[in-house]
Amino acid sequence: MNCISFSFLQPRLRWLMAWLLLLAAVPVVAETCKEAEEIDPATRSAIESTAKSFLGMSIGGDVAGLRATSIPSLAASFGGIEQAVFDNKDGLTGPAVVRKTYLLEVSGTAPVERAEFFCGVFGANGNTPNSAGFVLPNLAPGRYAAVIIDIHGPKGPYMLSEILQQLGGAWKLAGYYAKPGQVAGHDADWYAQKAREFKQKGQVHNAWFYFLEARDLVAPVPFMSTLKLDKLYDEAEQVKPGDMPTEGPVTTTMGARTVKLLAAFPIVVDDQVALVVRYQSSDISNTAQTFLDNTTLMKALVVRYPELRDGFSAIVVRAVAPDGQDYGTLLAMKDIK
């Protein structure tokens, strides 16, 4: 008979006991998501009626009412929401339909560093056509809701996404995202198709920026994933340029200058797609010199990436000082020579 000595088992038993005690000491944290049909009718009705009331306040420009019904941390820093309301209130007028409602719940006693919610049925490769995911940092335990509302009004399709938090039995505004469903007269599918055409031509910079526009038009909120968003992300990754600030600042050579590019992204100017490029500047107090620096960088960008002429109607270059202030210059593409 083989014998096993107690001296052999003892270290392992001590390790096992310590591991079990550690597990017992760690608070159990769970994140759960329920879709609209899984939410009890009373809760769903309260969430959606609150979201619609916030839509009504937005249409009326009632930022004071929205602030009064927001969670304290949002109410204390409401400038961004106020600007979003005034920028988009005309587009929110018209027939509105709740597209999706999600109930997000976090248990535990401490904020979750990275709260992940999986809504619906996921497959082996992640999202399926009817699933969605949310990732929210430093989320305190509690009940939250995400409501996505589609509006079809005189300014075309619009989307309002609200994040709500239940406090004291009432649902409060915790996040606000309003955006048009079309940019420069085109929807996300158009931008995605143009991106694929640019890719086929080898114009990876144009392709990257147009994929960014397509994803932005599709995404209700920046911390949400769906199958369509995942596919657009994968396509964009295939053309992501290494010489552009796609994931942070990039130092590169433009003409005779070494420039630290801080950000680059598409925007709409006069109903046309323009490219914004932000770069680091040591001093912008001399505006005449900064204007010259900006236009010089524009010309260098177009020389280095001639494909930009096919993708954008204008370029906006913004010199950013160390204190964060910036000075911008816009030129139509036809005027950049």
Characterise the protein shown here:
The chain is an alpha+beta fold. The chain has 3 domains: 31-180; 188-239, no CATH class; 250-335. The chain is 36% helix and 33% strand. The protein has 10 helices and 13 strands. It has helices at 6-25, 41-59, 63-68, 72-75, 79-88, 188-200, 204-218, 227-239, 287-304, 308-311; strands at residues 31-35, 96-106, 112-119, 132-139, 142-153, 156-167, 170-180, 224-225, 250-254, 257-269, 272-280, 314-320, 326-332. The strands form 3 sheets. It has a 5-stranded antiparallel sheet with strand order 1-2-5-6-7. A hairpin with a 5-residue loop joins strand 12 (314-320) and strand 13. Helix 7 runs antiparallel to helix 8 (227-239). The chain is globular. Residues 1-29 have low confidence and may be disordered.
Main beta sheet: 5 strands, antiparallel
Strand order of the largest sheet: 1-2-5-6-7
Overall tally of structural domains: 3
Radius of gyration: 25 Å
Low-confidence stretches: 1-29
- Give the averaged pLDDT, no decimals: 90
Number of strands: 13
Distance between the ends: 92 Å
Oligomeric category: single chain
Q: Which term fits the overall shape?
A: globular
- Give me the secondary-structure category: alpha+beta
> What is the tally of helical segments?
10
Q: Strand content of the residues, in percent?
A: 25-35%
| Helical content (DSSP H or I, runs of 4+) | 25-40%
- The SSE string, one letter per element, is HEHHHHEEEEEEHHEHEEEHHEE
